[in-house]
Amino acid sequence: MKNDKGRVVKKADLPSKLCVVCQRPFVWRKKWARDWDQVVYCSERCRRGGHGEA
User: Fold this and answer.
1) Pairing relation of β-strands 25-27 and 16-18?
2) Which of 6, 16, 32, 35 is the most buried (most CB within 10 A)?
3) Cα separation, 22 vs 31, whole angstroms
4) pTM above threshold 0.90
5) How far apart (Å, rounded) are the C-alpha atoms in residues 54 and 42?
6) From CA 52, how far away is CA 24, in angstroms rounded?
7) DSSP-assigned beta bridge partners for residue 2
8) How far apart are CA 45 and CA 10, in angstroms?
9) Rounded CA gap, 37 and 18, in Å?
10) Is the CB of residue 26 less than 8 Å from the CB of residue 33?
11) How far apart are CA 7 and CA 23, in angstroms?
């Protein structure tokens, strides 16, 4: 993966969060770049389940 300056970014250096449903960590993905602050689920399955949301 490359950053906006064309430099390679290691996966370990990407930001991560905990899923509000399964409490597992997940890392930033390019498709979430614009809404990273609003992302709270690690997957579509957790989003549909919705149990345990804070």
Assistant:
1) antiparallel
2) 32
3) 21
4) no
5) 15
6) 13
7) 8
8) 27
9) 12
10) no
11) 31
User: What whole-number distance in Å separates Cα of residue 2 and Cα of residue 44?
Assistant: 26
| Tokens, residue 37 | 């602050």
List, as one string, the DSSP characters of the chain: -B-TTS-B--GGGS-EEE-TTT--EEE--GGGTTTTTT---SSHHHHHH-TT--
- Rounded to whole angstroms, the Cα distance separating 41 from 49 reads 10
Q: Say how far apart CA 40 and CA 16 lie, in whole Å.
A: 11
Q: What is the pLDDT of residues 15-51, one digit of tens each?
A: 999 999 999 999 999 999 999 999 999 999 999 986 6
